[in-house]
Each structure stands twice: as structure tokens, then as C-alpha cells.
Amino acid sequence: MEITSKYVGRKSKPFRITISERDAMNYCAGCYVNNPIFYDDSEKLLVFPLYVVSLTWKISSSFGEFWDTSDFPLDVLATQVHYFEDLRWYRKIYAGETIIIDGEVSAILPHIAGTLLCINYTGTSDNGETLFRELTCSLLRGVKCEDKGAGKDYLSMVTFNTKDLDISRVPIWESTINVNIYDLNVYDGCSNIHFPIHTSQKFAVGVGLPSPIYQGTAILGRILQKFLERVDFSPENKTVESLYARFSSYVLPNTLLKLSVFETGLDSDMDKLYLFTVKDTNDNKVIKDGKILFKEIDLLKEVSHHEK
After folding, report:
1. Cα distance between residue 56 and residue 51, in whole Å
2. DSSP track, 102-138
3. Does domain 2-306 have CATH number 1.10.1040.10?
4. Confidence of residue 303 (pLDDT cuts 50, 70, 90)
5. Dihedral class, residue 216 (left if φ above 0, else alpha if ψ from -120 to 50, else beta)
6. CB atoms within 10 A of CB 203
7. 131 half-sphere exposure, CB direction, 13 A CA radius
8. Alpha helices in the chain (DSSP H)
9. Quick one: which of 168, 178, 171 has its CA closest to 277?
10. Is 215 within 8 Å of 184 (Cβ atoms)?
11. How high is the pLDDT of residue 299?
């Protein structure tokens, strides 16, 4: 299978959706989020930040509906595995809000194991306010890029490498994440992010994997839950501003993962930046160059959004 970079710059049709409380809470359940704030619908339900990936997936998974696919080799999509994820939130999001999501192919580049396909999504409110951005990149395994690719300069501006930072090599805390076969199906069902590479033995083996693999965004959801338990998270005064992770190895069922978190010394009065890695029991890095930024909230601005 082959692809070219001529599709870089191609844009999706806008996708408009009103967030339902049920879908937002179901997503939390799929990541085993136990903070009651994300289940409290007595007023406006606060949405767990990672939930936005289930919205953008509706575009990614429906190429024929949202993209011009007249000359696009759709069969290459069956080979995709998550390569990296870069998420940025500009304010908290609540159930009942209507979001308009636009996608654009930002890069297609040759890779030693195939081709990188990167899509940029922007979610805006009804009045045009930017709520979040997601840059999601997949590796099309075994797919040849027929040209030199396009979008490399853009990716170099957004990707992240901890080698550029002088960080402590001793983690400030560590935690484990146990992945069982049912976790793959729980996340599939609760998130509505369905791709058979994560739930079908037949499909996974057919594309060269030993078994179904755990969803990358499921791991990120569980990592975020671990952080929320540790960083004195209070939705009234703190929010997640950005999250980046480079997936470097797939995760099979019955795997115990170790999350290691590091300080950076790059904090300010309003911001707290952490770096993290995730390894399996064989000491293979599952996620490398991970970073997450927490930000203190401008309370006056936040109250004005919440009251709308």
C-alpha cells in the first residue's frame, strides 16, 4: 500500500455536536475516573478533558462522510496505530455546550516503519471561541510514502523531546496501571472510539499484531486520572492546559505499566509543568517524552463562562 503527501492541507467538513451528560460520564467510566466532580450533574456537568478525543474520532472514523476521499487510498487507514497526541485546552468544557470541530491534514511524512499521517482538529463554541486543539498523529504501518512528504517543519514546532531539558532523573512519584483484556472493550464501549485493532483478535492478527492493543487515549485518560489524584486538583482553581505524549510501543492485554513523573523547574506562579514516561514490565518505554501542564484559573473569566 502507498500514499502521497498531496493530501496535506485537505480539510474536513465541520462537525457540530452538543455534548450530552451521558456520553461525558460514560467516557469517564471508560478511563476509570473516580473524581465525583465529573459525574455531578446537579448544575452544569464538568467534562473530563480527554473526552474531546471521542468527539474528534467521529471525524477520523468517518472519512467518507467528512473528507473528500475521491482519490484517497482508504485501505491504508486499517494499518494505523497511534504515534503521538498533542492536546491543548483553552477553558473548561461543560455538558450541554455545542461544539463545532474542523479538521485539517497537517502532515504526511515517510517513516522507517511506514508513513506518518497527522491531523489537526480545532473545537470552537457557537460564538467562535476556541475551546481545544488536538494534533493527532498515526503511523500507517507498512504503508510507503511515495514522495518526500510534507508538513515536517510544522511538526518540528509542536513535537517535544525531553533531551532538550535539564530535568531530575529521579521521579517525584510513580504509579502503576494494570491493563486487562476487558479494559480494551470497556474503553471501546464507553468512549465510542471503535477501531477493531483494539477489540478483534482476527483483525489485529490480520494487520501483523499478536493480539488487540490498548487504546493510546485510554492510557492517557488513566494517566490524567493519576495526576488528578496527586496534584491537589480542584476544578474551581486549576485546570489542565496541555498534554503531549509520544507512543513508542504498543500495549497488549495483561500488561502492568509503570508511570514515572518528573519535575522540570520550568514552573511559574500560574503554571506547573510535569514530564512523564510509561514503561512496561520489560522496561520498554510505552510512552516517552510525555508532558502535562496544569494552570491556575482566572476565576473572574471562568465565572463568566460558567454563567452563560
Report:
1. 9
2. EEEEEEEEEETTEEEEEEEEEEE-TTS-EEEEEEEEE
3. no
4. very low
5. alpha
6. 15
7. 24
8. 21-30, 52-60, 63-66, 152-158, 181-191, 201-206, 216-230, 299-306
9. 171
10. yes
11. 44
Only one residue has cell 446537579, namely 42
- Of 198, 183, 179, 159, the residue nearest 290 (C-alpha): 159
- Read off the pLDDT band of 270 (50, 70, 90): low
Cβ atoms of 277 and 287 closer than 8 Å: yes
Give the orientation angle of helix 21-30 with respect to helix 181-191, to 10 degrees. Answer: 170
| DSSP state at residue 197 | G
pLDDT number for residue 273: 87
The cell for 199 is: 477489540
Please count the residues of the chain: 308
Give the number of other CB atoms < 10 A from CB of residue 234.
11
Span 138-175, pLDDT tens digits: 999 999 999 999 998 877 766 666 555 555 578 999 99
How many C-beta atoms lie closer than 10 Å to residue 145's C-beta?
20
Set of cell numbers at residue 258: 509503570
CA-CA distances (angstroms) from residue 98 to 19, 59, 67, 301? Answer: 6, 16, 21, 19
Which pLDDT belongs to residue 233? 62
Q: What's the confidence (pLDDT) of residue 235?
A: 63
DSSP state of 142: T
In angstroms, rounded to a whole number, what is the distance separating the alpha carbons of residues 281 and 249? 12
Element (H, E) at 247: strand 238-247
HEC-encoded secondary structure of 215-234: CHHHHHHHHHHHHHHHCCCC
- Rg of the chain's alpha carbons, rounded to an integer? 19
